[in-house]
Amino acid sequence: MKLSCNQLAKYLDHTMLKPEATAAMIDQTAFEAIKYQIASVCINPYWVKRVYQKLSKTGINTCTVIGFPLGATSTASKVLESRQAIKDGADELDMVINIGELKAKHDDAVVADIKAVADEVHHAHRILKVIIETALLTDEEKDRACQLVVAGQADFVKTSTGFSTSGAQVADVELMRQTVGDAIKIKAAGGIHSYEEAMAMIDAGADRLGVSASVKILNGAPK
Question: Which residues lie below 8 Å from residue 66, measured CB to CB, with a gap of 6+?
Answer without folding.
Answer: 45, 78, 81, 82, 85, 93, 94, 95, 96, 117
